[in-house]
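Weekly puzzle thread! Below is a chain. First person to post its structure in token form gets bragging rights.
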Amino acid sequence: MNTPDKPSLVFGSTIFGIVVLAVIGWIMLGGVALGLTSLYAGFLFLWYWGEVEGAETGRFLTSLVGAVCGIGLAWILQAFPVTFGMTGTVAAILLVLIAVYAHILKLLPFVINSATMLFLTVAAAPIILNQSDFTEVLASASLGAIFFGCVVFTAKRLSSRSNQPAEREQAS
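Winning reply:
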């Protein structure tokens, strides 16, 4: 079994510092400036995209679309029973089951993916499901994704710029 190399102390400390600043930034922007109460949705996006997708820029949009779909499915579980009674409950459960089946078969991977299932699982937890304003959860996830995406894209760009002189020296 191959285990990934451990990052160096300098690299790990740099990443840790960036993460700490990004977390503080999101709390200040999302929580203080924008008044969002569901900051967890933005953090959940960061965790998923960073840990599962390796913060790959090519996986950003798929991760965001999946997160939005998962939040939408959780909203359906909240709204349909209230609006349509028992018929709404059955319809909501059927839609979730169809989404799970589509995920297993990888039928619509851009829309229904692991991010979808993560956000559905978290947002459908009874305490969250029963007490959430899903418009606000959607705003937190989307704005958090944009915020953390900008942080990661900027850090990657700065990192590639700082590596360019070293690459030029090695080439000569």
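Puzzle host: Confirmed. Bonus trivia for everyone else. The radius of gyration is 19 Å.
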